[in-house]
TrEMBL record:
Upper lineage: Eukaryota, Fungi, Dikarya, Ascomycota, Pezizomycotina
Region (Disordered): 1-21, 72-96, 378-401
Origin superkingdom: Eukaryota
Family listed: Belongs to the peptidase A1 family.
Name of the protein: Aspartic peptidase domain-containing protein
Length: 525
């Protein structure tokens, strides 16, 4: 695993005093093994290696799979499943550090997976270039950045270099179920008003942690269209706090609410996997009755509310290996004892606008259309300017770029966990850590990681069964395998990591247990 930071360089000779927002280019591909998710194009290294990634706002790291992630026993499309596109006429299984002339290794350091795995884990840090939006000269190139150094982050760099007008963004996950399919939308420095119905509400960002989009959920209502009347059912008896987080897939809700939704939709709960599945009869009934769920959210101070309605099609997902051997219909709610979260499922029907400079964000219902949405890019101006927003006069630009800063925005890649035996641990601590200062052995290990050679030796562990069964245990906590689960960063709040042990933590397990050299973490912090 590698962690890198990127210092952005721009080919511009003069900063633009009135920059327009940047709209990132969707790949047009729908990826995932727990749903179909719209990804964005990211390029790393020199020459560039292409990856399909997802956005997040909870970390500043770019996480790329390493080159040792696929073996002969894996499916032929192992690389593509990991989000790796063909580059330079070759289909790789992950980022090839030794192919990049601009890769500058820093060393192996702890990346803070401690709470997830019951022990520390590490990544090989380094510097390299990152590109977004097409190919040069249109692409935005970020150079030489390092995670824990005092270097400005991705969003701050964009603004400092006059590439975007402000530290802000707008995002919706897209809808694969729509007709026509609607790809995700990600605008830096503004938002696309053509993608949502404006609602004049906003909520403050957490001053202690700008990564958290905290809201209150005041109601969750299901609606059925019957033969004679429309029936609704309320599932919330008392407001409760939650975060909106694109890093996770599902809706993490109180157990009591999950019970009610299970009964209404005819779901079955699998104690072993922690997923709610649905049979053909219940699914057909829900489709026939045009079932939907409306989630009413408000700001923590209770000054504004907005209703976000998810049609049943947004909840009618399929899950596959490593959770289930064959594709299985499931309903994307998960039980949580705390730190409730509205994940990417919610963002299919919600558009989020975040303005870091004003310390606020807003959530809007996405527009339902039978045609491809027309772009209406709006620029968010910084507080020092009179108007907070203005229409972009032309298509969002795609020219070169900047430097980087505090963790404000990042990308993450699809992970594909090989279904094969790596190592085994039952009720024991997995400790994958390299202490400083580096020893000769550490240097040799780092060289192996860069070269793509396989490494199986992890301190304090024996063989762990990952691929043979749907779940592995770490410190006694059931851990599910992950293939293709879109993650955009591992750096999360301690409580959130502990709470979402079946999604966030398992995703982390998939990254770290899938051989240490299989993932490059490239940071924009």
């Amino acid at each position: 695993m590698y962690q890198t930071e990127f210092r952005a360089m721009t080919t511009q000779t003069k900063k633009n005093p009135n920059p327009a927002p940047i709209e990132l280019t969707p790949t047009g591909t729908w990826d995932g093994n727990d749903g179909q998710w719209s990804t964005f194009l990211l390029r790393a290294g020199t020459p560039e290696q292409d990856f399909r990634v997802l956005p997040t706002w909870v970390t500043s790291s770019v996480i790329l799979p390493g080159s040792g992630g696929c073996v002969e026993s894996d499916p032929p499309d192992c690389g593509p499943r990991r989000g790796v596109n063909p580059s330079q006429g070759h289909q790789s299984s992950g980022f090839q550090a030794n192919w990049s002339s601009t890769w500058d290794s820093i060393g192996i350091h702890d990346v803070g997976f401690k709470d997830n795995l019951g022990g520390a884990t590490n990544a090989a840090f380094g510097r390299d270039n990152i590109g977004i939006n097409g190919v040069p000269p249109e692409s935005i190139i970020l150079k030489d950045q390092v995670i824990e150094l005092a270097i400005p982050s991705f969003m701050t760099s964009l603004k400092r270099e006059g590439i975007v007008p402000s530290l802000s963004f707008g995002y919706t996950a897209g809808a694969s179920y729509a007709s026509p399919q609607t790809v995700g939308s990600l605008v830096l420095g503004g938002f696309d008003e053509g993608r949502f119905t404006p609602k004049n509400t906003s909520a403050p960002l957490d001053k202690e942690n700008l990564h958290l989009l905290g809201i209150n959920i005041s109601s969750i209502t299901t609606k059925f269209e019957g033969d004679a009347i429309n029936a609704t059912e309320q599932h919330v008896s008392q407001d409760f706090p939650a975060n909106i987080d694109s890093t996770v897939t599902h809706l993490w809700l109180p157990v009591a609410i999950c019970h009610r939704i299970q009964r209404v939709f005819g779901l079955s709960y699998n104690e072993e996997s922690g997923f709610y599945t649905i049979d053909g009869n219940s699914r057909e009934k829900n489709l026939r009755k045009n079932t939907s769920i409306t989630i009413q959210i408000g700001s923590p101070n209770g000054t504004s509310v907005v209703n976000i309605t998810l049609p049943y099609a947004a909840l009618d997902l399929q899950i596959s290996e490593p959770y289930y051997k064959t594709k299985t219909r499931y309903f994307p709610i998960r039980r949580s004892q705390g730190n409730f979260t509205l994940g990417r499922v919610f963002l299919q029907s919600a558009y989020v606008i975040v303005d870091y400079e004003r310390g606020s964000f807003s959530v809007h219902q996405t527009r339902v259309s039978t045609t491809t949405p027309q772009k209406q890019i709006v620029s968010i101006q910084p507080p020092e300017k009179t108007n907070s927003t203005e229409r972009a006069s032309e298509t969002p630009k795609k020219n070169s770029v900047p430097r980087s800063t505090p963790a404000i925005f990042a990308f993450v890649l699809w992970f594909f966990l090989r279904r094969r035996k790596l190592f085994k641990t039952r009720n024991s601590t997995v400790e994958i850590v390299v202490k400083k200062p580096k020893t000769t052995e550490d240097v040799d290990w780092e060289k192996q990681m860069i070269s793509g050679k396989e490494i199986y030796e992890l301190s304090g562990s024996e063989d762990m069964e990952i691929g043979g069964t749907p779940h592995a245990e770490i410190d006694g906590t059931p851990q599910a395998e992950i293939e293709g689960t879109p993650m955009v960063g591992i750096e999360r709040e301690r409580e959130s990591r502990e709470s979402h042990s079946d999604e966030i933590n398992k995703a982390v397990a998939a990254v770290t247990l899938d051989q240490v050299e299989n993932v490059y973490v490239q940071s924009m912090n």
